[in-house]
Q: What sequence folds into this?
């Protein structure tokens, strides 16, 4: 079975229906919450894939993980997925739906990693830069703090990575000095 094909087909069907009903943004928010919950709590994916839990229990897990009370369309979607026994693909369906939504709405996802929290005005400057570089309407900027980069930043945008961290610079200097 091809996880990518299955997930994409289900996500595409959900996106088409949500767009038709004008609830694509609401479904996006709930699918985003579901994806984040499943990544944060790997045991949730295990529970959904387990035959030990009933369909009713799995539905309750999906509702809770998607924010508590999913819209009617998403609830129907969950019911359909469970009836077809495709719940083990739900994380990938969530990610595929998010990708479809972002592509349709011209939203780019970027991530900036720094050694300390960035101030709001700095975040806005980074977001503005990413908007110009990507030529997108909107930017979803995620931030991460990793003290081990010492200083500087790492910016990830689509398949590009700009590593201007102090840690990387120090590693480059060390390699240069120890190379013979």
A:
């Amino acid at each position: 079975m091809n996880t990518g094909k299955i997930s994409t087909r289900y996500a595409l069907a959900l996106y088409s229906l949500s767009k038709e009903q004008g609830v694509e943004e609401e479904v996006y928010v709930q699918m985003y919450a579901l994806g984040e919950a499943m990544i944060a709590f790997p045991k949730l994916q295990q529970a959904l894939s387990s035959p030990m839990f009933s369909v009713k229990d799995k539905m309750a897990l999906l509702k809770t993980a998607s924010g508590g009370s999913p819209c009617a369309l998403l609830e129907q979607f969950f019911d359909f997925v469970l009836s077809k026994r495709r719940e083990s693909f739900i994380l990938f369906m969530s990610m595929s739906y998010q990708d479809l939504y972002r592509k349709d709405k011209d939203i780019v996802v970027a991530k900036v990693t720094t050694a300390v929290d960035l101030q709001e005005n700095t975040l806005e400057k980074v977001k503005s830069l990413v908007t110009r570089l990507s030529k997108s309407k909107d930017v979803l900027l995620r931030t991460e703090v990793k003290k081990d980069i010492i200083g500087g930043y790492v910016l990830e945008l689509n398949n590009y990575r700009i590593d201007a961290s102090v840690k990387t610079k120090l590693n480059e200097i060390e390699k240069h000095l120890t190379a013979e």
